[in-house]
Design goal:
This protein has 263 residues and is an alpha/beta fold. The chain has one domain: 4-Layer Sandwich (Purple Acid Phosphatase, chain A, domain 2), CATH 3.60.21.10. 35% of the residues lie in helices and 24% in strands. The protein has helices at 21-30, 45-48, 56-70, 123-127, 129-155, 164-171, 173-192, 251-254; strands spanning 2-9, 31-38, 54-55, 74-77, 93-94, 97-99, 103-106, 112-115, 197-200, 207-211, 214-218, 227-231, 237-241, 256-258. The strands form three sheets. A seven-stranded mixed β-sheet has the order 5-6-4-2-1-12-13. Strands 7-8-9-11-10 form a five-stranded mixed β-sheet. The protein has a two-stranded antiparallel ribbon with strand order 3-14. Helix 1 packs parallel to helix 3 and helix 6 packs across helix 7.
């Protein structure tokens, strides 16, 4: 097991069919830390209102995070837009997991990092909720199609993880511009408030780059890219891509253990 000082995770989307809980479990088994920051959309309450898909692997993710909190790790949850109902519990702890809308991480090198999910910097998510919900439906359509494509790739003997949604984001000019505007908006806010860096999620695009004089870090997600940020013991921040990690298939992990009709 690798010992790091802090782990930053966002956009797990527990409760959905497309959550890559198996890869996240492998990552958590490989890395131990003093701090764990969960930066929003950990549980996808939006999708769960239409139907719940909860696997054994997803349940194990929750149990592992709670166990680490109970054994002394500082686990902090900053809710996002898909689990925004948790924002009502600002300042409350659940099973040693602290919920807060505002968090700051002080690096071992003295640098201050603002921790946010990031939806407040997304003009669509903030001011056009109906469009955001429609976009969410479209995203899930892409992910369902991606499942079919992944099966075809396996039949053809093509190895490696491939994301249709990620390819669309990188290819369409409007999608690229949207992500870029988001990154600049988040970094500008961090700069204006005197932070050395910002760590966020929301757009499912992992990143580590200088913007507006601060260090912009995005955790990515555990649906498409399967990535996270870690702070090493020497203060070095690193974006880790786990999309290529081979996770043994287990039928029990793939079986839905809880389901519900749309409400």
């Amino acid at each position: 097991m690798n010992q790091v000082r802090a782990i930053f995770i966002s956009d797990v989307h527990l409760g959905t069919r497309h959550c890559q809980a198996g890869r996240l479990l492998e990552f958590l088994r490989d890395y131990e830390s003093e701090f764990i920051y969960l930066l929003g959309d950990i549980v996808d309450l939006w999708s769960m209102s239409r139907g719940i898909h909860w696997t054994k692997a997803q349940n194990t993710v929750v149990q592992k995070l709670l166990k680490r909190a109970q054994h002394g790790a500082c686990v902090v949850l900053v809710p996002g837009n898909h689990d925004e109902a948790l924002r009502e519990y600002d300042g409350v702890s659940f099973g040693c997991v602290a919920v807060t809308q505002h968090a700051v991480h002080l690096g071992v090198d003295g640098r201050r990092y603002l921790l946010v999910h990031g939806d407040h910097f997304d003009q669509v998510a903030r001011y056009h909720r109906v469009l955001a919900m429609l976009g969410d439906h479209g995203y899930h359509w892409l992910m369902n199609f991606n499942v079919l494509m992944s099966r075809l790739r396996r039949m053809l003997g093509m190895a490696g993880h491939w994301s249709l949604a990620g390819t669309v984001k990188r290819s369409l000019k409007h999608a690229v511009a949207y992500v870029r505007d988001y990154e600049l908006s988040v970094a500008r806010h961090a700069m204006e408030h005197g932070y050395d860096g910002v760590i966020c999620g929301h757009v499912h695009v992992g990143a580590d780059k200088p913007l507006h004089g601060v260090r912009y870090l995005n955790c990515g997600d555990w649906v498409e890219s399967c990535s996270a940020i870690v702070e090493h013991l020497d203060g070095r921040m690193e974006l880790l891509d786990r999309s290529g990690v081979v996770v043994p298939f287990k039928s029990k992990d793939a079986a839905t253990v809880a389901s519900a009709k749309s409400v």
